[in-house]
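Dig into what follows:
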Amino acid sequence: MLKNCQLIAGVWVTSFLSILAIPSVCAIEPSVTNAAFLLAQQSNQAVVVQVTGIKVNQTETGLEIILETKEAEKLQLLPKSDGNNYIVDIPVAQLRLASGNTFRQENPTKGITLVTANNPDVNSIRLIVTGETSIPKIELFDSDEGLIFSVKPVVSQSQQQPETPDTVQPRSETSENETPIELVVTGEQDGYRVPDASTATKTDTPIRDVPQSIQVIPQKVIEDQKIIRISDAVRNVSGVTPQGGYAGNTDNYNIRGFTTYDNLRNGFYSQDGNVNPTNIDRIEVLKGPASVLYGQFEPGGVVNYITKQPLSQPYYSGEFTVGSYNTYRPSIDISGPLNSERTLLYRLNTAYESSGSFIDFVDQESFFIAPTLTYKISDATSLTFEYEYSKVNRTYYDGSPPDPIIFQRPISLFLGEPDTKDYYRESNNVNLTFEHRFSENLKLRSAFSAELYNEDAKTIRPDSIDADGRTVLRRFAAGPGYLENYSLQTQIVGKFNTGSIQHQMLLGLDLNKYIYGYDFLRTPANSIDLFNPVYGSPLPTSFETARKERYDRNTIGLYLQDQVSLLPNLKLLVGGRVDFINRKNRTQDLDGSGTNLIGDATTEDFYDSPFSPRVGIVYQPIEPISLYASYSSSFNPSSSRTATGSTLPPESGTQYEVGIKAEALGGKLSAILAAYEITKQNVATTDPNNTDFSIAAGEVKSRGIELDISGEILPGWNIIASYFVNDAFVSEDNDPTLRGNRLVNAPRQGGSLWTTYEIQSGDLQGLGFGGGVFFVGDRAASLPNTFDIPSYVRTDATIFYKRDNWRVGLNFKNLFDIQSFDSQGYYLRPNAPFTVLGTISVQF
């Protein structure tokens, strides 16, 4: 099976790489058309053009940006678009300005927020022009002064012109009053490909320069797929399988074979798995260990949720979604300046949801609001305040016990007791970020985060199925819980050269205080018949097991990272982090009522100072190709406890990864192919004899191959696709029967394909449609392996229409109504049958 999967992956990669040889259908004799030129530009014989000055002048229609040089005719341009940014790379050229080798001007005219230019490497210039609401239109001229970019802001997306080729013809000498050489690019405001990401390096680094696999799910994908539960968005990424969390309210992930219960939010450690997509700008998924920058995480990878930020141009958006199972979901997203100088900006996202479920007796109601304020103290200094509040009332539902008989029962089966909204959770998240730029080469960022939530639950939940195959043994579980998670991050980014070698150095200090406590109340409850359930069991008033638990962890993390450009096409990433961790666990018994403390408290202290290194190298033989290799490690103190009350030993992991990153169609389409091996010791898994506790499985390994593709094939035609094979298994254990067992909820293979097309012109302009498939291979349901969760293929589709500032759409999920299950840790959770969501939205 593994060989067949590798063969399939090879066919996918071969097919994609063949695209690299196909020129863009829009290209008209581009100035850089083949690898030979790209190699030639790196030779010692290439004449590097010097740009000695940059002028930004206002015009009647916008701006003109002049690159002052006596050799304008020799400049070759490689333009592209990214969000609101017009980006042009100029190879075989250098900035040599009197004020330094960087240029920056903020808000030069209405509709343009920023103009920057720098030397990304020793032999090229990058110019970026940022529009307020959408990418500006650019025209190009030659003059005696140098090369002139005529910039015209685009006020709104509806006023944009159809996309034009993002290449530039060779130029001849003209005067400023003659016809422009070419309209370079306008483009869409957003798309499926995101070229840069910050999660892997904590700096805005092109993904192609990172020696580790990272995928980004942009807002456009979230919108097109009509994501209501955030974990559905991550199904687009190879090697990632969603896994339900506590009470069915939170979302966890299995990444490269390892389940992680912790995520990042704007780069901060977070255990609040209840993420509302309304305030999410994009999702970045870093594969492999992240401990070198973030400390305590699983070695499989981490998901980073990036929230929406204030805009300097007024923006108003409202949306209403209605769908199957009495789903109603209105939301609002508004933003803009609060003063005429546009130094005080705001954004407000809010959403309400009321929905039932295909599961009997299960429903929920939630409210979410997230205001954000940014104060631009000066051109070099800003302060941003973010707040999120959410409240959820829902039926407590984990799923069904892991037994093959469950696959023969209706997916609507509820094995608890009907008690509407017996789970409550209220959370508050606060972020305060201060940024200051001392110069173009030295920046400071300091940010504080506070994550607070309270929850309460009471439920009769299924425990296991008796030997008769129909009696479901149950227990009553209850108890309030709370979390306080405070973090302070301070980092300095500096750029400097040592001879011809360029450095981008990151020095950071993290402080974290994490407090988590809950009352553990358990007692047996009446059983229920799997084939003829009769409800009405009373809730108990006393408990067989009752105790109060508290976890208090203090962490200091210090890290250093250097991104080194040894050559324009050879980059080195090296870094390390040391964590000083002091954790105290306190446990005290409660009486049978679950209210009064009894006996002496048990306290357990833990201290460690792990070191987490990472080293990687990237080689780019030609412009569209990056070859990379890396080594990294992880560390994660276990918070799990055995049935005897002791804490499991700390977990550690190492990963070796190699891969290739490629771009095609002028950079509009990208792919990442990666191969990896991860070894992890002291893995915590659910104790099959007591599901409230864990056992250590010894050493486990995970090996696999992954492929991810995203971008635009033709104007209006977007695609995001993935495929992976994975072998995650127990390699060493004191119990010989566990050796060779597969890890729980780690598919052997999986993949996804989602594509949409929007008609670009004519009477049907704005009409779009799309669809996709999501494949999840069979997974082990438990450890030791006794049976598998069957594989499945889910098919989704969408049709939408955009006109002016209106959009209406229909999304069809599980189009063929297939029955499937995912893991909820110990439990099995059925996926929704055929579902329809209708949405209408308006923007101003």
